[in-house]
Each structure stands twice: as structure tokens, then as C-alpha cells.
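This follows on from our talk about sequence and fold. I would like you to pick a protein and set down its sequence and fold. Go ahead and set the record down below:
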Amino acid sequence: MSLNDEERQIIVNLEQEKALNTFAEMEVLRQAGLWNNIANRLYYAAFHAVSALLIHDHYNVGSHQGAVIMLHQYYVKPGILSKEDGAFYSQLQTMREKSDYNCTYNATEEDTLPRIEQTKQFIDRILSMIK
């Protein structure tokens, strides 16, 4: 996808907004104790933040797995983001996939609650790299 600078900035802004709105949705789900849905929202909030960064830096985001690979290749390996950040993003993706697609797995409060603040901090770090 070839974007001019104006189009790129519009999409980056939309992705950033989506990241923040998706994270905010998680709070309603937390109050209801819907842990599988929280796992989903945490991952997608992080995914939209990562997508914003990749698009900002002229990378094409083609898939969820592609976003993981590119985050590791272009930001973790060179040391721009920590290995812990890369591992955390991968863990969010795994938890989301298990909670969405594995009928024998249910995310728990213990699984998700500690990741809420971690996800907020991760999103903040990613979005600060865009500004």
C-alpha cells in the first residue's frame, strides 16, 4: 500500500485513536468480569498501537503475525524496544488467541488483571515513539 504523507498521517492518527478507545473498552469489561473479552481488548489495543508505529515508519502491516515479526525485527532486535516489550506483545497475542479460539481455555482475573497496567505502559511507549 503506497501512501502519501497526508494519508499516512491520517491512518496513523486513526490507529492511535483505535488503540486508546479499545483500551478504554477494556475497563467496562473489567467491571463486568469478562476476562476473555479483556484479553481480546488488551491485545487489540496493543495491536493498533503497534500498527500505528509501523505505518508511521513506512512499514506495511499485513497480518497480526506480520506485526509481531516486524516489531521484533525493526524495534526489538536493534534495541529500540526491549526484549521484554517484544515478549509481552507476543504473550498478549497468544492469550488473545487462546481466549478467542480455544474452547477449553478461559482467561482468568489472575491472567489478565496484571496485564492491564502493563498494556497501558506498552501502548504509551509505542505511541511516544510516534511523536
